[in-house]
Design a protein that fits this description.
- By secondary structure, this protein is α+β, with helices and mostly antiparallel strands.
- 22% of the residues lie in helices and 8% in strands.
- The protein has two helices and two strands, in the order E-E-H-H.
- A two-stranded antiparallel ribbon has the order 1-2.
- The radius of gyration is 11 Å and the shape is globular.
Length: 78
């Protein structure tokens, strides 16, 4: 069974970003979505997709220091 990216939901999973920080659950993403995830520049829609897929804003890559309450990037690196 194919697994699809947790962010876009259209492309197949190409990367599993796991063990990035203590307590984080793995991120199953495609190559297109990996860049905005690790560079803290997810769109509001991408951020909310991760929350719908079981992630929380308590995780490092989605933390409130990097995104506001609406999922807008505060400190994009890329």
């Amino acid at each position: 069974m194919k697994k699809y990216c947790e962010i876009c939901g259209t492309n197949e999973v190409q990367w599993v970003l796991a063990g990035t920080y203590e307590g984080d659950i793995p991120y199953n993403v495609c190559a297109n979505c990996l860049h905005p995830l690790v560079n803290l520049c997810l769109t509001n829609k991408q951020f909310k997709a991760l929350l719908k897929n079981g992630h929380t804003d308590e995780e490092y890559l989605l933390h409130g220091d990097f995104y506001d309450g609406n999922g807008n990037a505060l400190q994009p690196m890329g």
